[in-house]
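Submission sheet (multi-component)
Chains listed below:
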Amino acid sequence: MNTDKLKTAGDSSTEEKIKNAARTVFHKKGFAAARTRDIAEEAGINLALLNYYFRSKEKLFNIVMLETFQSFFASVSSIFNNPDSGFEEKIEQFASRYIDLLFSEPEIPLFIINEIRNNPEELIKNTDIKHAVFQSVFAQQYKILEHEGKIKEPGFINFMMNLMGLIVFPFVAAPLLKSISGLTDEQFNAVIETRKKLIPVWMKAILEA
Amino acid sequence: MNTDKLKTAGDSSTEEKIKNAARTVFHKKGFAAARTRDIAEEAGINLALLNYYFRSKEKLFNIVMLETFQSFFASVSSIFNNPDSGFEEKIEQFASRYIDLLFSEPEIPLFIINEIRNNPEELIKNTDIKHAVFQSVFAQQYKILEHEGKIKEPGFINFMMNLMGLIVFPFVAAPLLKSISGLTDEQFNAVIETRKKLIPVWMKAILEA
DNA sequence: GTCTATAACGTGATAGAC
DNA sequence: GTCTATCACGTTATAGAC
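Outcome: structure written.
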C-alpha cells in the first residue's frame, strides 16, 4: 500500500519476501516461539537483512499482526455490511466464504486468539471491529427480527458466539478433533465442507428454538 | 500418585510447589514463552531447585501437560460414560459441568489446543481419548437414536464439533469476544452462565433440524 | 535440600567488508 | 543491498559451598 517509493516488483522484492516469510512463521508458531533465523531461512535471505529492513523482530511482528488482523476482519465486514442480502442469506454467505477462507489459511484464528490474549489493548485501537460487527447491517437485521418476535434467542452476542463457534471451532481444535476421531486430513476436510450448508440450517433452528 | 517415597506433605512439599507453579505459568504462557525464572518466582523457590527436582524445563513441561490432559479428559469421560443418565440428560450435565470447569480454569482449552499442535503424536499415545469419546455410552446412545431415525444430523463427529464449539469457543475466544462486544468480565461471565441452560435446548433443535 | 555463582548455549541485533 | 563475523544479552542448566 506504500507507493511513495515505487518498488520495482512489489511481490518479489526482498522486503516482501521477508514479510511473507514472517507471516508464515508467525502464524504457525506465534511470536515467542518464532525465531528470526526461521524467518530468514523461510525467506531464503540472510538474517542481517531482516534487521536491515525491519529494525527488529518486534517491529516486523507488529506489521504482520496488524495486516493479518485487518484483512481478516475486512472480509467479515464486507459480508456483514452488504445491503442487498437478507439476514439468512448473510448467514449462508458467511458460513460458506469464511470456511473457504479458513481452508486456505487455517492457522489464522489461533494466531489472532493467542496474540490478542498477549496484547489485548493494542489491536482494539488500530481496528474498529466492534463497530464492524455490532453496527453492521447484519446486526441491524438481527435487531429487527428480534423486535418482530421472530427470534427468541437471548441476544446478538450469544448469536455471534454460536455462529463463530460452529464455523471456527473445528479449525481451532483441528489437531485435537483429528486425533479423537481418527479421521484423515481429507476426511476431516470433507466433514467441514458439509458444514457450509449445515450451519445455516442449524443457526435457523437455534434462532427458532 | 507416586507413593514410593512417602512424601511428608504431598501438597506443600517443594516438589509440589514447583509443579503447581509450573502448571500456572505454562497454562498462561505456553511452553515457549514461559521462563523457568517465572516458575521459580511463582513457586517462591530458588531457580536451581527446579533443575534439581525436574532436571529440565522440558521434562517439567511434559509432566504438567500429561497431568492436565488426563484430568481434563477424565472429567469428560465420567459424564459420557454414566450408564444411569439418558442422552439429553448427558448434554445438560456436560454443558453445565464443563462450563463450571472452564470458569475455574479458563486457560486450559487454549493450552491443550496450542500444545497439541506442537506435539500431535505425543499425547495420543499416552491417553486414549479416542476410546473415551467414540466408545462412550454417550456415543452409543447417539447411535441408537440415529438408527431409530430420531436424529437427522449427519454423524457423531459433527455433533461433537457443535457441542464442543458451543461450550468451549466462548472461552477460547474470550479476549476477542470481550473487545468486540465491549462487555465487562462480569457481564461476559453472566452471558456464558445463561448458556448452561441454552446449549442443551439449541443442541436439541440442531438434532431435529 | 537449598543456596550463590557461573558456565553453556541460543537468539536478536549490529559492525564492517564487499 | 547483501553478506560474514561477531557482539550483547537473556535463559537454561550445573558446579560447588553450606
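Remark: Chain B has two domains: 1-55, 64-208.
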